[in-house]
Structures are given as C-alpha cells and as structure tokens.
Amino acid sequence: MTEGEPVRFGALLRRLRLAGGLTQEELAERAQLSERAVRDIELCIAPLVAQSPGFVEGY
Fold first, then answer.
1. Taking phi first (over 0 means left), then psi (-120 to 50 degrees means alpha), and beta for anything else, what does residue 21 get?
2. Nearest to residue 16, comparing CAs of 5, 32, 27, 4?
C-alpha cells in the first residue's frame, strides 16, 4: 500500500485486528457482533454495522 492509496475498510479492520492480537471471534464478542459479521466486513461482502452498540468500543 502506498501513501494516498485508498484503503478498504475491511482490509484496515483486519490489519488492526491482527495487530491487536485478536481473532475474529474475540473481536466479534467485544463488538457485540457475530463472528460471521466480522468475517463478512473484513471481506467487504457485508454492509458495515456501525450502529452496533459495541462496534467501536469493542476494538
């Protein structure tokens, strides 16, 4: 990735999750989402669930 290059949210979420040492299951639990929802967001095949109560606080 180069400076100024757009980053997909899913790719960024995955990179941050891995940097934080979390599994998809752990992030899902903290964010009050299903593990599948986290996977789908990372793969950009699901709409963002920003209205989820724990989405931001979970990470």
1. left
2. 27
- 45/32 Cα distance (integer angstroms): 19
Sketch out the chain's domains with CATH numbers. Answer: 9-58 (1.10.260.40)
Q: Which two tokens stand for residue 49?
A: 């669930």
Query: Rounded to an integer, what distance in angstroms lies between the CA atom of residue 4 and that of residue 41?
Result: 22
The Cα–Cα gap between 43 and 47 comes to 10
Closest among 6, 59, 20 to 38, alpha carbons compared: 59
Please give the average pLDDT of every successive group of 10 residues along the chain, which has 59 residues.
Answer: 75 96 97 94 75 57
Provide the 8-state DSSP code for 4. T
